[in-house]
Amino acid sequence: MTRVLIVGTGLIGTSIALALRRHGVGVALADHDPDAVRAARRRGAGQAWRPGSPVDLAVVAVPPEHVAAQIHHLQRVGAARAYTDVASVKQAVIGAAGRLGCDMSTYIPSHPMAGRERRGPDAAAEDLFRGRPWALCPLPQAAAPARAAVLDLIGLCGAHPVELPAADHDQAVACVSHAPHVASSAVAARLAEAPAQALALAGTGVRDVTRVAGGDPALWLDILTANAAPVAEVLEAMAADLAATASALRGLPAGDRAAAETVAALLRRGAAGRHRIAQAGREGA
Amino acid sequence: MTRVLIVGTGLIGTSIALALRRHGVGVALADHDPDAVRAARRRGAGQAWRPGSPVDLAVVAVPPEHVAAQIHHLQRVGAARAYTDVASVKQAVIGAAGRLGCDMSTYIPSHPMAGRERRGPDAAAEDLFRGRPWALCPLPQAAAPARAAVLDLIGLCGAHPVELPAADHDQAVACVSHAPHVASSAVAARLAEAPAQALALAGTGVRDVTRVAGGDPALWLDILTANAAPVAEVLEAMAADLAATASALRGLPAGDRAAAETVAALLRRGAAGRHRIAQAGREGA
After folding, report:
1. What homologous superfamily does CATH list for B169-284?
2. Between chain A's N and C termini, which has fewer beta carbons within 10 Å?
3. In A, which residues are within 8 Å of B199 by CB distance?
4. Are A33 and A63 in contact (CB under 8 A)?
5. Predicted-assembly ipTM surpassing the 0.85 threshold
6. A-proximal residues of B, 221-250, CB under 8 Å
């Protein structure tokens, strides 16, 4: 892989560009905002794109709702031999690409599982993806060279590939990312109107739980909207658990054994899930 | 302050003992389990307690349901000039102490806002409380010297005191600690039965959200039980937010503006709450 085009020089696009530059890959940069390209160039992320002979891979790092149109445009002008995107949802993007008539043999949808609270090229870091999972969701008609190009990209970024169908991806990220974000927001929302004295008692636990709630609300509305049904399903299960626990706690002062068991069961399931994800982290590291 | 008695040489009691030893304070150790005292002594936390002349302060670091009886016993034998406890709920403990006839002029209920996932004297650390808030909830009849002794203890542990009524304390910790723990458990519970592929996609965000869910379920059942009503109230509000968000997401694919606004509003409230607690941390540090 010698030449890559990055379309969208925000946090993710610029971080990918920096990782590729470190390996000596030629990087061309494009963005609808010329200031974003300039900022990425100042970071040493590459040069402004000048259409010419096709690059090895085009990485479309724009908001989910614009991915399909961008892929379609790039394929029409023959910008690259292979294409990928980095949107956090896959079924909606693939559906839109199909409706526009994109060539799904050279387009390999993907999603790096990394991010930061800050956005934009100035927040980019070449090690943003190091040691992180990076999902890829090739369709059955995917061409082997295109899939190989995306695997190359993932390797050059220091991430490890997780290949799975788009529907499984969307359910997985609802469970491990999108719904946890909403739960974090629901915890943090209580703190928005709590007395100052209550905040003074906050320890590290609630800071951990609410960290992701600091993410950009507009960006997250887009993400949740694009993965609405899988996220709703997980949120409904969480809401039911919290409501059942609240109801059991209301019954506890009377010494209700079944109520105590309801509360204990959620705590045990939570500890089991936490243990499992902590183990998954160790295996993945 | 020259001599302190620690009753209950678990994580919290032994950590307090280590912090006091570092300042040259004489520490006497007691626990219903002789092994726990031996383990704390091996850590250099002090010597086994031998009843004699009263110490300056007795710190009762036993599970909430045993605090009142322990304070009552120590006061009856005249073990100390002042008494405190470290239970994570205050109204229930104070109520029980009142019913037993404890002297509330020398007993100043308190609660250090610090902990670890591991328990026991071997997990203890002298810096466990450094820079952390430590609530104290003196009753109106509290004697000034007893209150001063607890403030001394807090200072020697490197923590900063937050004085507030017990009822306010219990509502505050429901909001900043107990309900966030249950929310973390509800997120982690989803991971207990998720496909391995989903766990493979987990990033740092969900690991942050679920960290506290790794806490001991039996210990947390005790904590939640002792603060049942305030926790239930916060959980009901969270469950309502999650259910409303799920319902709005179900309505989104049809392009429902009001539904999108429901989702966006929670994300914005969450970001505001997160900003507020991040600021509180900076001011407290």
Report:
1. 6-phosphogluconate dehydrogenase C-terminal like domain (1.10.3660.10)
2. C
3. 176, 276-277, 280
4. no
5. yes
6. 221, 224-225, 228-229, 231-243, 245-247, 249-250
